[in-house]
């Protein structure tokens, strides 16, 4: 269990902290874990678009088209102009390999170039 959950099991901003867990799992290429946490975060706060991005990329890497389509629709409703190019211009990811891995996952999930 993540330490903050032990200290504050009813933390109202858990979705924010758990989004970091999605990102870490995705960048470790543990796509199954990223999807599991992504689903949980989506239930906690369906309007948090940052979580959708990493969750969506993990779904793309796993080839889960049906679920990716649902998450992509949600993401585009939150960020109508979201594209891979827009992600690349604004990403906090510094390492080129991480940006490429994320971008590929988004492409595989159906995000417009």
Tell me about this structure.
The protein has 113 residues and is mostly helical. It has helices spanning 3-7, 14-27, 31-44, 49-62, 65-78, 84-90, 96-108. Helix 3 runs antiparallel to helix 4 and helix 4 runs antiparallel to helix 5 (65-78). The model has no long low-confidence stretch (mean pLDDT 90).
Features:
Serine Threonine Protein Phosphatase 5, Tetratricopeptide repeat, 7 helices, 113 residues, 72% helix
Question: What oligomeric state do these chains adopt?
Answer: single chain
Largest sheet: none
Shape: globular
What are the segments in which pLDDT stays under 50 over at least 5 consecutive residues?
Answer: none
Q: Encode the helix/strand succession as letters.
A: HHHHHHH
Write the layout of secondary structure elements.
Blueprint: H1 3-7, H2 14-27, H3 31-44, H4 49-62, H5 65-78, H6 84-90, H7 96-108
Summarize the structure.
This protein has helices at residues 3-7, 14-27, 31-44, 49-62, 65-78, 84-90, 96-108.
């Amino acid at each position: 269990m993540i330490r903050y959950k032990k200290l504050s099991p009813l933390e109202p901003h858990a979705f924010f902290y758990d989004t970091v867990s999605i990102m870490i799992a995705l960048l470790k290429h543990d796509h199954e874990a990223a999807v599991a946490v992504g689903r949980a975060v989506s239930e906690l706060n369906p309007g948090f678009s940052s979580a959708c991005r990493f969750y969506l990329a993990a779904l793309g890497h796993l080839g889960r088209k049906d679920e990716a389509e649902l998450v992509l629709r949600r993401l585009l409703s939150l960020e109508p102009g979201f594209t891979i190019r827009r992600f690349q211009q604004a990403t906090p990811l510094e390492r080129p390999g991480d940006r490429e891995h994320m971008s590929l996952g988004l492409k595989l999930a159906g995000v417009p170039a």
